[in-house]
Design a protein that fits this description.
Elements (H helix, E strand, L loop, with lengths): L2 H15 L19 E2 H4 L11 E4 L9 E4 L5 E9 H5 L16 E7 L9 E7 L4 H6 L1
Antiparallel strand pairs: 1-2, 2-3, 3-4, 4-6, 5-6
């Protein structure tokens, strides 16, 4: 990955931490409610994706998201961003991205070759909201 891409991902993370205020409590349990839709209801994806959970997204925020990731019990466990590498390399910024929760215990960033909804190769930026979130989303 180029220095530009890594810098852009860093900026994506920083902008996520400065996200717009919203009613965090309303998002803590699935379903997320308007304007979010369950990704599996609108795309050919499973309801629960191991590693990401059950995803909800506001279609107006695609492709970056945020995607709200819920565990099998319906607890918000992570906020996921999907930033196309082409966009990052071409200088596109994803600013003012919301968070599902302002509590973040860890972050993973990894490559994805593409899937329904975000077909281009992209970076997944996953903000886990508590110590057990990663394990709950893996199950």
């Amino acid at each position: 990955m180029t220095k530009l891409s890594m810098s852009a991902i860093g900026l994506l993370f920083v902008s996520a931490t400065l996200a717009n205020a919203h009613d965090e409590n309303a998002l803590m349990n699935a379903p997320a409610g308007d304007p979010y839709v369950k990704v599996s209801d609108v795309l050919p994806l499973p309801e629960f994706i191991p590693g990401l959970g059950t995803l909800f997204v506001d279609p107006a925020t695609l492709p970056a998201g945020p995607f709200l990731a819920y565990d099998r019990e319906g607890q918000l466990s992570a906020t996921v961003y999907m930033a196309p590498l082409d966009d990052l390399q071409n200088g596109v910024s994803f600013n003012g991205l919301n968070l599902g929760s302002h509590t973040v215990s860890s972050t993973d960033v990894y490559f994805n070759a593409g899937h329904p909804g975000v077909e281009k190769p992209h970076a997944h930026v996953v903000l886990f909201h508590d110590e057990g979130a990663k394990e709950r989303l893996a199950e």
